[in-house]
Amino acid sequence: MKIYSIIFLLVATVNLQAQNQTNSSSFLDKTDFKVGYYGNVLWDNGINLGAEYLWKENIKIKERKRGQKIITRQLLFNGSIGYSTNFSTQTDNGLSTYYGIIWRRTNTKGKQLSLELNPLGYYRSFLPETYEVKGDHVSKVRFPGRSYYAPSIAIGLGKFRKGKKRSGWYLNLRCSIRTPYNAGTLPVFSLEYGYRFNFKRKK
User: Fold this and answer.
1) 102 and 119 in contact (C-beta within 8 Å)?
2) Which of 22, 42, 108, 188 counts the most CB atoms within 10 A of its CB?
3) Distance (Å, rounded) from C-alpha 149 to C-alpha 197?
4) Which residues contact 105 (CB under 8 A, 6 or more apart)?
5) Quick check: 8 pLDDT over 70?
6) Numbers of helices and strands, H then E, in the chain
7) Are residues 157 and 171 in contact, defined by beta-carbon separation less than 8 angstroms?
8) How confident is the model at residue 40 (pLDDT cuts 50, 70, 90)?
9) Are 191 and 174 in contact, with CB atoms under 8 Å apart?
10) Which is more confident, 93 or 47?
11) Residues 7-20, buried b or exposed e (16+ Cβ, 10 A)?
12) What are residue 69's phi and psi, to 5 degrees?
């Protein structure tokens, strides 16, 4: 009876250690960080930082005459923050952040197609030095600008680099909706081009 108890305790201890090791490394293993250009080229240009966490993954392997065809489909949690400005006039500056989910398909050669939905989005505009007049009194407005609810959708292309620290590049076309904007909403289109990094990989 004692020997069975000892074996049970040893197995349980090894199992717990294995689980702890897996849990401690799983977040970074499944998370890619990204940095890139963000703007609409013509006037607003800036930078975007973010992260993607792998939630679910499905891999299908098909045998073909020319070899295996591997299709990977993923669902990822997505979060990002970006800042853009009009370099010519300095009158249109904005900070944006959004959170949602990405569906991504990767083929055997690493080519990717993605669709992104971000129901949680926020945009804050910053105006240059602004004053307000109340009667005969003129005062400077502190932190002039406006805040908007700004959900977004995006479609993108990219390339995956298996086993590499710089895990790939992406090019997204994004449409965000700023509301309330005057009496309605304002659709805004922007481009995003950048690279993803997984810091758990060695190369």
Assistant:
1) no
2) 188
3) 29
4) 71, 72, 73, 74, 112, 113, 114
5) no
6) 1, 11
7) yes
8) confident
9) yes
10) 47
11) eeeeeeeeeeeeee
12) -110, 115
* Angle, alpha carbons 186-194-119 (nearest 5°): 40
* Residue 110 reports pLDDT greater than 90: yes
At 90 the pLDDT is: 61
- Token pair of 135, please? 């009667």
The whole-angstrom separation of Cα 153 and Cα 98 is 10
Structure tokens at 126: 């910053």
CA–CA gap between residue 158 and residue 195 (Å, rounded): 9
146 CA to centre of own chain: 24
Interacting residues of 147 by C-beta distance below 8 A, sequence separation 6+: 122, 123, 124, 125
Mean pLDDT of 59-79: 89
Q: Encoding tokens for residue 120?
A: 């949680």
Look at the block and give the residue holding tokens 């300095």. 90
Structure tokens at 86: 């009009």
**What backbone torsions phi and psi does residue 198 show, to the nearest 5 degrees?**
-120, 110
- Residue carrying structure tokens 């292309």: 157
